[in-house]
Amino acid sequence: MLRIRKFGAIDIGSNAIRLLVANVIEEENKEPKFKKSSLVRVPVRLGQDVFMNGEISKINIDRMTKAMKSYRLLMDVHGVEMYMACATSAMRDAKNGAAVVERIKKKADINIEIIDGKREAEIIASTDLHNVIEKEKDYLYVDVGGGSTELTIFSSGKIKTSRSFQIGTVRLLNEMITNDDWKEVEKWIKRNTKDLKRLSLIGSGGNINKLHKMSGTAIGEPLSFIYLNAQYQFLQSLTYEQRISELGLNPDRADVIIPATRIYLSACKWSGAQKIFVPKIGLADGIIKTLFFESSKKLQKGTNILNV
């Protein structure tokens, strides 16, 4: 018997707000299949406000409210049975974060959960990586966002450790990262990868996805450290306007792609990784999986399931 269920994931990041609607296809005695139905992204750069001024501006609160109202309508049209809205680094740091959450609940009927870096790393790590991870190899998973970077070590097919760092593309653009911040990340990576052999990087986030697409590399094939380093030098040689007009990058991607590439390159250098796999997964995908498995547990217990 075939059963199709729909779930929604809202990722409120420092650089953009995304809605992912996914179908989960269930068949008896088979692993569930997760298929993207719709993805909407709006470039509301909350981090620009928060990291510079400590709170979200009235303009961006209004933009965010409109985005969330539209997401509520889209989820209703799609027939989403459950959703989860998670806010990360910018909302964590915003002095008016709680007030914004309350406003969104009142105006858009969406509950937002502000998650800490550890929870964010856990959700991201729950994504479907079996097509990438080989049990006899080791991996450093790097998810680069606007306000933070989540790092997870996989060894023998299992999570060894994870950590969230306050280094992100929007913070870097605004020159808010110190040498001590970089040294802390370097120290953590070196300490946790020093005994691992044949280590590769797994990169997630909009910027590494774009870099992989720009490379023309086949889906599933990794980028090389050499290519990424050359691309970094090339991107730096172009002006912001050239990156938009000549490379076709969106305005909100054309600036953050350089600091993002720097983070991935640094992670490669400190871990000794020469390959970067790009499976096109992230927080929103992890939210979908989390929702599905939590709802399945509740169904087995006979608990009523409501939208979270």
Features:
308 residues; alpha/beta; 13 helices; 46% helix; single chain
Structural class estimated from helices and strands: alpha/beta
Tell me the number of strands. Answer: 11
Morphology: globular
Give the oligomeric state.
single chain
Physical arrangement of strands within the biggest beta sheet: 8-7-6-9-11-10
What order do the SSEs take from the amino end to the carboxyl end, as H and E?
EEEHHEHHEHEEEHHEHEHHHHEH
Sheet with the most strands?
Answer: 6 strands, mixed
**Distance between the ends:** 27 Å
What does the average pLDDT come to? 91
Strand content: 15-25%
C-alpha-based Rg, rounded: 19 Å
Low-confidence stretches: 302-308
SS field, number of helical segments: 13
3D structure, described in words:
The chain has 13 helices and 11 strands. Helix content is 46%, strand content 24%. The chain has a 6-stranded mixed beta sheet with strand order 8-7-6-9-11-10, with helices on both faces. A 5-stranded mixed beta sheet has the order 3-2-1-4-5, with helices on both faces. It has 308 residues and is of the alpha/beta class. It has helices at residues 46-53, 58-78, 89-93, 97-108, 117-125, 169-173, 179-193, 206-215, 225-237, 240-245, 251-254, 257-271, 283-301, and strands spanning 2-12, 17-27, 33-42, 82-87, 112-114, 138-144, 149-155, 158-165, 199-204, 223-224, 275-277. Strand 6 (138-144) and strand 7 form a beta hairpin.
Explain the layout of strands and helices:
Blueprint: E1 2-12, E2 17-27, E3 33-42, H1 46-53, H2 58-78, E4 82-87, H3 89-93, H4 97-108, E5 112-114, H5 117-125, E6 138-144, E7 149-155, E8 158-165, H6 169-173, H7 179-193, E9 199-204, H8 206-215, E10 223-224, H9 225-237, H10 240-245, H11 251-254, H12 257-271, E11 275-277, H13 283-301
Parallel strand pairs: 1-4, 4-5, 6-9, 9-11
Antiparallel strand pairs: 1-2, 2-3, 6-7, 7-8, 10-11
